[in-house]
Write a structure and sequence with these properties.
Length: about 775
């Protein structure tokens, strides 16, 4: 009843304002309504998109574009751990094109659908009333919010429709928007409500410049050559870049991003989007055209994977895919069993060309499964350690051609779970994958033994060095529970584990976790995907350990897989029955893994990216020395700290403090908590932003660094951590929250004009 009275009074007040203006009491012409592109979109990015930017946005209300606003909200969840049949996809811009189509999909409006809706109706829409509810019911007093505020990822969601809002407001009066955070300022609130009252429409973005429009035409012509060779190459590029944010010119924060999509229509005529569940599904047309579609969505850090199209890249693609010596007699089809297997579909394209393409932007290639649009990556990420280094085999090895021939013969053993679709998991089918992987490893071992002389001679040259110019040759992966970040360089102290990824692993990871993964699929599809990824992780780890002496190799495996299931132990033991190379160097100490890391750092010295090192922060040597102590913290302090803390050092930009959780092994899907080893948890401190989901913000001056480091080292309890937050933290309830958030996003943008994005606060802690 209270909410109804407030709405009535607001209508009476607005009517009086209009009457005064008409009756001659107006001082002057009314101010123009706020503009969506200039006024509203930036405000929504800073205040709303921080929780409504990914697939798991509450109620599927994605606010990264006006199309997301007009689509509205849904009571259906994208993420489900007990789905028995695949769900209908609800991808914005893809699975429906009109508001009416989204309503048929069960989405309800948060803005009035009618273009001629009255001002009262526009102000009574769900979005407006959510903002009103927040102003009428500010956060309760105190540092921490009560348990009635549920921030768990699987919390119950209400998703009220317009006709349900009064009931929702009476039951959950403190659940207005922004949820669990300070309200909008008066000026922000009035700006949004004035825009809603005016019409809530979006003005068009600025048109492409003539130069950029010409570049788009040029690249579309390259993507759509008529020869079979061109068409096969374009399909390969598309299936690997369909998630990329492509850009043709670097304009910093004003860069325009595109996505490569499949269309029924050729360049020069309006795009007719082909939408399928997976990028390699049958398009239903005899000729596919690959087009550049301007992405209207705001850039979100979790899903942002920039990829620049340049003249130099064009020349490399031409060298690998067009000028290379191979023939295409006919194009492959789209049968799921073969289309999901890149070793079959793209067999005609030379192995070295495919490998070189994937390595050219290896960070992007790994980002696809580490940082892609799957917002809760528990399937892919529960199978990796919290921090590890990644290396790659060289595509120009002495046995490259022989290895290509070997892969062609082993294509059946490399079949992926995506070939079975998104349906019910079959134990029989799973055992067939396990047998196939074992056969493949046995064949791979035979290949290594047969080519031992050439491989032994190669030594560390088998590790790709980026041709001395490409910083993608060495990467660091940070896992933050169900999300992760991948950066260039060997960041932090030497990790427990490392991967050496060869071409078959790289390709299978992409078709397992990116091209072939269905977030709307059944729970069993996700389970089978996760279990298969175990194979790829272990194979990558064993590739790396293969460069250690045999006794050290066995010791490392025992340490990495403490308490693992017998079947896992037997599987790992089988690696020692495969080909084993002689150590590539004469190890001098009883710490050969550390020696190998040092040798690889020397080999890759020319290309290592150092931007995440503290020396790049602009801080004094004394401050850097103090912060470096955090990399030595081990045990309880690291286990109490959240996984990703962004630190704003006034006058110097941003640092990220990461807590790395330790496990006895990560091969168990059902006993991850039981495998935790908190006493072995560690910290890593890096320059800049290295997390899309910050759990906490700290704000300090450089002079505070020695005290901050000491406090962190001395954390022994939750009370100690709470005292740290009292001194430096910005909690959800802090009236300074949005001011600091704006500073963090501005610093992030200034430091990384192309790769920055809006951070997601859905994992921000309340403690």
């Amino acid at each position: 009843m209270k909410a109804i009275l407030i709405q009535m009074l607001r209508g009476i007040f607005l009517a009086g304002c209009v009457a005064n203006a008409i009756g001659g009491n107006a001082i002057g012409p009314a101010a123009p309504a706020p503009d969506y592109q200039h006024d509203i979109r930036p405000l929504l990015e800073r205040r709303c998109l921080v929780c409504h930017g990914c697939y798991d946005a509450p109620c599927q209300l994605k606010l990264d574009s006006h199309e997301g606003l007009t689509r509205g909200a849904s009571k259906e969840r994208v993420y489900s751990t007990d789905r028995l049949v695949p769900a209908a996809p609800s991808r914005l811009f893809e699975d429906a094109q009109t508001t009416a189509q989204w309503r048929a999909h069960g989405f309800s409006p948060v803005l009035p659908d009618q273009l001629n809706a009255s001002e009262a109706d526009r102000r009574a829409g769900v979005l407006a009333r959510m903002l009103d509810l927040k102003r009428e019911n500010p956060l309760p007093a105190g540092k921490l919010l009560p348990k009635t505020f549920d921030f768990s990822l699987n919390r119950a969601q209400q998703c009220p429709r317009v006709d349900e809002f009064n009931t929702f407001a009476s039951r959950y009066p403190q659940w207005g928007m922004p949820f669990g955070l300070p309200p909008l300022t008066d000026s922000e609130y009035h700006k949004v409500t004035e825009w809603l009252a005016a019409d809530g429409r979006a003005t068009e973005p600025a048109p492409l410049s003539p130069t950029l429009a010409k570049e788009v035409e040029y690249w579309e012509s390259l993507f759509n050559g008529d020869s079979l060779k061109h068409q096969l190459a374009a399909r390969y590029v598309y299936e690997h870049l369909f998630l990329a944010h492509l850009y043709l010119e670097d304009r910093g924060a004003n860069t325009v991003f595109f996505k490569v999509v499949r269309s029924r229509t050729p360049p020069g005529v309006p795009l007719d989007l082909i939408t399928t569940r997976r990028p390699y599904d049958d398009p239903g047309v005899s000729r596919v055209y690959y087009r550049l579609w301007r992405d209207p969505a705001s850039v979100v850090a979790k899903t942002h994977m920039p990829y620049q199209l340049t003249a130099a890249r064009r020349d490399r693609w031409r060298k690998w895919f067009i000028d290379a010596d191979y023939k295409v007699d006919r194009l492959p089809g789209y049968d799921p069993r073969t289309a999901s297997n890149p070793f079959v579909t793209f067999e005609r394209i030379p192995y070295a060309s495919r490998h070189s393409f994937l390595l050219d932007e290896a960070q992007f290639t790994i980002m696809n499964f580490i940082k892609g649009p799957v917002c809760r990556g528990s399937v892919a990420l529960s199978v990796i350690q919290d921090r590890f280094w990644v290396f790659f085999t060289s595509p120009q090895s002495a046995v490259g051609q022989q290895f290509a021939q070997f892969l062609a013969k082993e294509d059946e053993q490399l079949e992926l779970p995506a070939a079975a679709g998104s349906g019910i998991w079959s134990a029989t089918k799973w055992r067939s994958y396990a047998r196939a992987q074992s056969k493949y490893l046995q064949a791979k071992g035979d290949f290594i033994r047969a080519n031992a002389a050439a491989l032994d001679k190669g030594g560390l040259s088998l590790f790709w060095d980026g041709e001395g110019t490409n910083a993608n040759a060495a990467l660091t992966v940070f896992r933050h529970n169900d999300s992760a970040t991948v950066v260039q360089g060997l960041v932090g102290t030497p990790p427990q584990t490392a991967w050496l990824i060869d071409y078959p692993i790289l390709e299978r990871i992409h078709y397992l976790l990116v091209a072939g993964f269905d977030v709307y699929g059944t729970a069993s599809h996700q389970l089978m995907t996760r279990m298969y990824m175990d194979f790829l992780r272990m194979e990558s780890e064993m590739n790396f350990l293969g460069f250690l002496p045999q006794d050290a190799r066995i010791a490392e495996v025992r340490n990495w897989y403490r308490g693992a299931d017998r079947s896992v132990q037997a599987y790992l033991d089988s690696y020692y029955q495969h080909g084993v190379l002689a150590p590539p160097m004469d190890f001098k100490t009883d710490r050969p893994k550390a020696e190998l890391f040092r040798a690889l750092e020397l080999r890759l010295a020319k290309v290592l990216n150092h931007r995440y090192e503290l020396q790049k922060s602009g801080l004094t040597a004394q401050s850097i020395a103090s912060l470096a102590r955090l990399d030595q913290v081990r045990g309880v302090a690291a286990s109490i700290l959240p996984q990703a803390v962004i630190m704003k050092v006034n006058g110097h930009g941003l640092l990220t403090l990461l807590s790395n959780s330790a496990y006895s092994n990560i091969s168990s899907l059902l006993n991850a908590a039981g495998n935790r080893l908190p006493a072995e948890d560690t910290l890593t401190i890096v320059n800049g932003v290295s997390a899309a989901y910050p759990n906490a913000f700290l704000e300090l001056n450089e002079s505070d660094i020695p005290e901050l480091v000491t406090r962190i080292e001395q954390i022994r309890s939750e009370a100690d951590y709470a005292a740290l937050l009292d001194r430096y933290g910005i909690r959800r309830t802090d009236e300074r929250f949005w001011k600091l958030s704006d500073q963090v996003l501005a610093d992030y943008q200034n430091a990384e004009p192309i790769s920055h994005g809006v951070l997601d606060y859905s994992r921000y802690e309340n403690r």
